């Protein structure tokens, strides 16, 4: 029987995106001589999340996302005379250098990497994520990595997963599970693709929206036990 195929999201599932994001925006603001306040940093985080939701629903392109978040931020705070395209590029460059791993992620990957086939599936860009994964020390755990920008289609769209499935040797939907922190991207994507969706939800948030996780876990120990159980179930 083939090994269980585990598709893993990157940001806020394995990598601490929230920490990286805040460090990158602070560095970007300083580079552009913009006063750094908690209010502007917090607002950027909200705007960035909003822009990613627009991307996930197909309302903007990945290229436009970089500029839009700074268009919105600078307009709201009355910041003039600053190039939002340059700010977007600077932010991405700084984010690339921020490869923080979530506590416990490396041990989790070490424990499951021999048992299962691991693949990375992310809406992040390949240049940014490649460096961050290496910095975090987890790039070598995956049999392959899939980036929406290269595929031309983002999670949660079925086209993204059709591409992924067609590029995994001996892929079997009945032996596959997707693990991710986002209901609107990862879990809805798993629903659309017809595979098991596991919601990585350490904050204990309530289910909101159209996505329906098959399972919900709060940490890596719980996730590893669930994967072991799924492996047994899917072998029957």
Beta content: 5-15%
Beta-strand segment tally: 6
Rounded to an integer, what's the Rg over CA atoms?
A: 18 Å
Helix content: 40-55%
Put simply, the count of helices is 10
What's the overall average pLDDT, rounded? 95
Shape: elongated
Terminal CA distance: 10 Å
**Strand order in the sheet with the most strands:** 3-2-1-4-5-6
Biggest sheet, in brief? 6 strands, parallel
Structural class: alpha/beta
The string of secondary-structure elements, in order, is EHHHHHEHEHHEHEEH
Structure description:
With 236 residues, the chain is an alpha/beta fold. The protein contains 10 helices and 6 strands, in the order βαααααβαβααβαββα. A 6-stranded parallel sheet has the order 3-2-1-4-5-6, sandwiched between helices. Helix 1 (17-31) packs across helix 4 (84-96) and helix 3 (62-76) crosses helix 4 (84-96). The relative contact order is 0.16. The model has no long low-confidence stretch (mean pLDDT 95).
């Amino acid at each position: 029987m083939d090994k269980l195929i585990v598709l893993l999201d990157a940001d806020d599932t394995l990598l601490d995106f929230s920490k990286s994001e805040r460090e990158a925006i602070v560095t970007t603001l300083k580079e552009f001589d913009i006063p750094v306040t908690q209010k502007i940093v917090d607002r950027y985080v909200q705007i960035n999340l909003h822009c990613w939701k627009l991307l996930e629903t197909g309302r903007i392109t990945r290229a436009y996302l970089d500029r839009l978040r700074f268009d919105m931020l600078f307009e709201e705070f009355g910041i003039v005379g600053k190039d939002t395209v340059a700010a977007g590029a600077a932010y991405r460059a700084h984010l690339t250098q921020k490869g923080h791993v979530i506590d416990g992620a490396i041990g989790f990957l070490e424990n499951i990497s021999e048992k299962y086939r691991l693949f990375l599936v992310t809406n992040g860009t390949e240049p940014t994520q490649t460096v961050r994964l290496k910095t975090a020390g987890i790039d070598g755990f995956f049999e392959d990595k899939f980036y929406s920008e290269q595929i031309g289609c983002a999670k949660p769209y079925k086209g993204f997963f059709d591409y992924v499935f067609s590029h995994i040797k001996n892929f079997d939907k009945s032996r596959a599970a997707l693990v991710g922190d986002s209901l609107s991207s990862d879990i809805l994507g798993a629903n659309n693709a017809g595979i098991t969706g596991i919601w990585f939800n350490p904050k204990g948030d309530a289910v909101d929206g159209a996505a329906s996780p098959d399972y919900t876990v709060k940490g890596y120990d719980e996730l590893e036990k669930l994967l072991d159980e799924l492996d047994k179930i899917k072998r029957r």
